[in-house]
Write a structure and sequence with these properties.
Elements: H1 2-41
Length: about 45
C-alpha cells in the first residue's frame, strides 16, 4: 500500500510540474516579446 501511495505521489508531482513549467515558459516568452519590441523601437 505504501508503494502504491508513493507511485501516486510521484504521478501527482509529474502532473503538477508541467503546469508550473508552462506558466514559467509563458512568462519568459512574454518578457522576450516585450524586450524584443523595445529593442526594435531603439534607433
Amino acid at each position: 500500500m505504501g508503494e502504491w501511495n508513493n507511485n501516486v505521489w510521484c504521478w501527482n508531482l509529474q502532473w503538477v510540474r508541467p503546469r508550473e513549467v508552462e506558466e514559467m515558459v509563458q512568462e519568459a516568452e512574454l518578457v522576450l516579446h516585450i524586450s524584443s519590441a523595445v529593442l526594435q523601437q531603439l534607433p
